[in-house]
Amino acid sequence: MANITASMVKELREKTGAGMMDCKAALTETAGDPEAAVDWLRKKGLAKAAKKAGRIAAEGLIGIALAPSKAVVVEVNSETDFVARNDLFQGLVKMIADVALNVGADVEKVLAARIGDRTLADAVSETIAKVGENMTLRRASALTVGRGVLASYVHNSVADGLGRIGVIVSIESTGDADQLKAFGRMVAMHVAFSNPQALDPSALDAATVERERNVLADKAKAQGKAAGVIDKIVESGLKSFYKEVCLLDQPFIFDEKNKKSVAEALKEAAAKAGAPIRIGGFVRYALGEGIERPGGDFGGEVAALAGVH
Questions:
Q1: Whole-model pTM above 0.85?
Q2: Can you give the residue range of the structural domain that contains 255?
């Protein structure tokens, strides 16, 4: 019997995109011959994933999983929205979110986690082979809470905990749990709608603030404003900027008059809950944000080939 080494399995996996256990089985069946192992995987339909790996995957789903003291949000991409509506793909995203809830938000650890006799990466490769599209676990984030609640919201939901925008929020308080959950849900919906960059000005990236400060100053100088006036204009402009990008400074979307800030709404919620409330953190994922999509329409190409107009 040939000695199958870890490096042989790794090389075959990189070449074919098949799962680790499948690669090991292929090498065992072919006495360690790498070319024969590739053919073995192709015959079994397990090498399809490699052919899909170069395609841009910018569709897919955001998945959320919650436990009493921990919440995770993941983004799993596919090539087309059609596959995102597939039960098999949706089941994969739920599985990934559940695994991340247990092992943490490190993508490599999530993919290396074992589910029975295979890794999660193997499960992804198998789903690629079955569905015929490239799929990737792009990112994952987690929040925890000691005393308080974790809340979530999914926009454009296709199933429980699955959609195109996902938000998780940590609400820290010893107050009434039902009140905290209701307020946390509202905050999560607000974050989905308003897309804040940070909790408050102190949490903003210093370079972002400095860039905004320079833009405001240069604009005032171009208008011929005096030096003493420019400083006041810059400070006033920064306050407006904070209202746009900082969660606590933003106008709360549930205030009909649009005058109450999230910070003010938080104080009112604390009074109802019977204890001070602090927003410990939030994470907002929007599907495909930051991914450069190809100029062509892959979905349209498929429809054209199938004669669908």
A1: no
A2: 201-275
